[in-house]
Every structure is written in structure tokens, then in C-alpha cells.
Amino acid sequence: MTLGNKLRSLRAVEGSLRGLGRPMTQQELAKAMKREVGRGLSQAYLSQIESGTRPHLTHGTRTLLARFFRVYPGFLVDDPEGYTPELQSALRAVDAKIDSWLYAGAEQFAADPELRRGLLVIAENEDSRRALLLLAEILRTPGLGDRLGEVLHSGKHQASGHPPPSSLNN
Predict the structure, then answer these.
(1) Is 72 exposed, middle or buried, given 0-12, 13-18 or 19+ CB atoms closer than 10 A?
(2) How many Cα neighbours within 13 Å face the side chain of 42?
(3) Domain boundaries of the chain, sorted by first residue
(4) pLDDT of the residue at 73
């Protein structure tokens, strides 16, 4: 897949995630990047990338696009000749879908900073699939989730120098 095709695909996914029911236009992308990341690219520059007129990105441009779309910067290059998506392991493809889902969820719960942070921590984990499966096992084990919560909560209070809430009731 070419860089231009990847950018078109990312605009389509982003439009869907934003509830547009269509791909984001290049102009919408340019404005959203400026607003959400603080820097943007012009619509003309995006058009050059998609058309193949500008086949290579600077490091800064690649980083900016990767940050906005929440993809690995290395994704934003032409695939080598002979590459097919089937060469990716099935689990790697699943992990990428999970990461996209987690990032989208984090944006949807921006008003709940703790939940947003939790979703981002899992998405940024090297193996987010494994992290979610571990969480499922923790919750499945009777009492383990509560015990871990107590230990982590008490650790926060020790670090802050304040007693844990349970000791205040004694």
C-alpha cells in the first residue's frame, strides 16, 4: 500500500470515528490537526502526499501525522515491494484494532480523566491484547481485584504521606 493510500484510509477511519459517516476531507484534516495537535499541514500538502507527488515525508511531518492519527510513525511509508497485509501475524492485526478502539474510547471519555488515562495506558502497552486478557483474569479471580485496588490505593497514600482512608475509620 502506498503512503497516499494509507493517508486516504486513515482519513476514512477518522471520519468514521468522529461520526461523520464519510472520510474526513483534506481540509477538515488540516483544520483538525491545527486545532488538536497545535500544528497542521495545508490541504495542498496533504493532496500532494495522497497523489504521490510528494512520496516521502520529513521526520517532522511523519511524526505530526502519526500523532494525530495515533499510529506508529513507521506505518506512514510506502510498503516494500511484494509486501502484503497477510504477512502480518493475526495477533498483530488484532492488537492494532484493539489499540485503535482504546484510543477512540479514550477520546470519547475525555470528561473522565482517570478512565481516559487508563484506556491510554492500555493502548500504549506493547501488547494491549495481553494487558486486557490479564485484566480479565484479575477480575475473574475472586477478591483479587479488590485486594489489588487496596494495595495500590494504600501505596498512593504512603507516597503522599497521608494515611489510607481505611485507617482513618479506626
Answers:
(1) exposed
(2) 3
(3) 3-87, 90-165
(4) 84
CA distance 76 to 161: 46
**Residue 114 CB coordination number (10 Å):** 8
Could you tell me the pTM of the whole model?
A: 0.49
Residues 143 and 153: beta-carbon distance below 8 Å: no
* Single-letter amino acid, residue 155: G
Grid cell locating 134: 490479564
CA distances from 147 to 25, 96, 137, 139, 156 (A): 49, 31, 14, 11, 14
Query: Which residue shows C-alpha cell 487496596?
Result: 150
- Domain at 3-87: CATH architecture: Orthogonal Bundle (1.10)
Closest CA to 77 of 68, 88, 92, 66: 66
Q: Are 103 and 120 in contact (CB under 8 A)?
A: yes
**Is the distance from CB of 100 to CB of 13 less than 8 angstroms?**
yes
Alpha-carbon span 61 to 33, nearest angstrom: 12
pLDDT digits (tens, 9 = 90+) for 132-141: 989 989 888 8
Distance (Å, whole) CA 144 – CA 155: 16
Per-residue model confidence (pLDDT) at position 170: 40
